[in-house]
Amino acid sequence: AKQRLVLAIAAIAVHLCAQSWQTAIDDILTMLGQQPKCTWGILLAIPEQLSDVVHTYLKTDKRTQALLAKGDLVVAAALAQPPMSGESHTTTGTLSDSPFSLALQTLTQWSKVMGLPLLEQQGFADILGNTLTSGWSSSVCMLEL
User: Fold this and answer.
1) What SS3 class is residue 115?
2) What is the Cα–Cα distance from 93 to 70, expressed in whole angstroms?
3) Angle subtended at Cα 120 by Cα 52 and Cα 60, rounded to the nearest 5 degrees
4) Sign of CA dihedral 49, 52, 57, 62
5) Is the CB of residue 71 less than 8 Å from the CB of residue 116?
6) Axis crossing angle, helix 99-114 with helix 36-49, rounded to the nearest 10
7) pTM to 2 decimals?
8) 138 burial class (0-12, 13-18, 19+ CB within 10 angstroms)?
9) Whose CA is closest to 37, among 120, 129, 86, 99?
10) pLDDT in tens, 45-85
């Protein structure tokens, strides 16, 4: 039931972000403290919800641009999400993954599908380097990132 709700919120955010719900990403990120897995699940599903846009025009679509305008907030939230000690390094792309894993998967999808320039984000390279040297370098979510 939670997974369906997560997908519904992602679909609504994508369809309304450029018009009547311009604060969609801000509002979704406010849930991070109470529901981190759901928050990252919503953000992870957003690129998939853009699938009705022809791939050639995806990065220039007004919805993609509206979402990317909040990309710095998504990256900052992901960088603030610490890995849990003893956490599994496997990923499923579902709410059963850890918040840290979902955050990295979100950055990967936003970068690959929507063109979010991760290396240009302040602090990203430092956090990436620290994470790679902390034993997470062999995890699937790190390898994809």
Assistant:
1) coil
2) 22
3) 25
4) negative
5) yes
6) 20
7) 0.81
8) exposed
9) 99
10) 999 998 777 666 778 889 999 999 999 999 999 988 887 66
